[in-house]
Design a protein that fits this description.
membrane; alpha+beta; single chain; about 200 residues
Length: about 200
């Protein structure tokens, strides 16, 4: 007899999550298999306030373009902060309560969280590394403008940049040394020819 249990679907998982969430909680949804997370503030009655695309677009292609543009360029992209259904924000992704334990004692009360979030409704700037949905929810709930995922991305970009810089320097040094060695070999060959 098999005791194999199937994993709950994202909908079943999120239904259980909704039973645990309290108004003012931060919720995050894994996107693209956990490559990055989308964050929202839960405000009760299966509603959230979060950053979303300007148009009602659910295709990942638009978000990929937004991410690519914001990572690779300095101009910020326009997005909107909206009050929407938890289910619309979740798409087909599993959510998770994501309050920061280290800041919980500094959290605003729900009425203040809601007031602060509602003041932000409308169009705003977005930058994956500098002004994203995680920055937004942390500013609203804790008055802390930070994003762990963008900090990790910045470190990753820094490491990648250092590796590329190191490789470039190594290739350049090799080319210079190789060029000098060839010149020296030609001089020695010419000296032998004269002798």
């Amino acid at each position: 007899m098999s005791t194999h249990q199937s994993r709950p679907s994202p909908r079943e998982h999120n239904q259980r999550l909704l039973e645990e969430l309290k108004p003012g909680d931060i919720v995050k949804f894994a996107r693209f298999g956990g490559v990055y997370y989308h964050f929202a503030i839960y405000i009760g009655n299966e509603m959230v306030i979060h950053i979303c695309e300007l148009e009602d677009a659910t295709t990942s292609r638009k978000m990929k373009k937004t991410l690519a543009a914001s990572v690779s360029s300095s101009p910020q992209n326009k997005v909107r902060i909206a009050k929407e259904s938890f289910w619309k924000a979740a798409r087909d992704c599993k959510g998770k309560k994501a309050n920061h334990e280290r800041y919980e004692c500094e959290s605003f009360e729900f009425d203040e969280i809601l007031r602060r979030a509602e003041q932000c409704l409308g169009t705003t700037d977005y930058h994956f590394l500098l002004k994203n949905c995680e920055h937004f929810v942390n500013r609203i709930k804790y008055d802390k403008e930070e994003s762990q995922q963008s900090s990790k991305a910045k470190v990753g970009f820094g490491v990648a940049g250092a590796i590329i810089l190191g490789l470039t320097a190594g290739v350049t040094a090799f080319a210079v040394i190789n060029s000098r060695n060839k010149k020296e070999a030609r001089r020695q060959s010419q000296a032998l020819d004269l002798a």
